[in-house]
Amino acid sequence: MRSYQPDLTPPWKRSAPVPEVPAEPDLVVEEVATGFCGAVIRCEKTAQGPTVTLEDRFGKHRVFPMEPRGFLLEGKVVTLVRPGPGGPVRPTRTASGSVAVPGARARVARAGRIYVEGRHDAELVERVWGDDLRIEGVVVEYLEGVDDLPAIVGEFGPGPDARLGVLVDHLVPGSKESRIAAQVTGDHVLVVGHPYIDVWEAVKPSSVGIDAWPVVPRGQDWKTGVCRALGWPENTGAAWQHILSKVRSYKDLEPQLLGRVEELIDFVTLPD
């Protein structure tokens, strides 16, 4: 008969048990050792033990062993385990990659605003960040171009409690857009932009089912040129709806747009 061996480890040195969490698809966790944060893509059984593949918001994949106490879920240490067959999959993230808040009510609109150049920009922002913006009470409006931006900013009257963020297409050094942005940027106005001629290009070609966005010769309407080069009907409105329908989450967008929109949301929502 085996004799009882008491555990003589001091209580303060004992590891407290942590919950086991099924590594279901789209569950977002942070790996403790590296700080890499991403959504679960798949779990695999290997000769070295089970592994989990994570994808961060920029589309980068990394594989980690599913070790005890190896991950953080919403800031708390957990042990990931392989999900059981037929287990429920609960949505944990919004389309932008933020933590989902089931049943959350929209906040009363803030005085601050985010302006984007055109209707397509506004529709894309709504598709990916709409849930986040409603919770934060941020309204997005579109400008139909940036030529009148100085007058619009003057009429808006930005201040500490009414910040204004502006997203501009093709904001590159020396451009007309960059000169206008310099006129209005200040403590309570942030103008950021992406390098693309049009927000269409901010959608990853692979998500649309093409190898790359076509190069359209100077002097030709870019959207019409894209439709022509891809063999699509030259109906830019219909083409945009097709592109927009392929965007399901932040994973379908280029990092150069993702970072700028997140920057604007932070700017108009953080305390002064």
TrEMBL record:
UniProt name for this protein: DUF3097 domain-containing protein
Top-level lineage group: Bacteria
Native organism: Streptomyces rubiginosohelvolus
Domain DUF3097: 20-83, 113-269
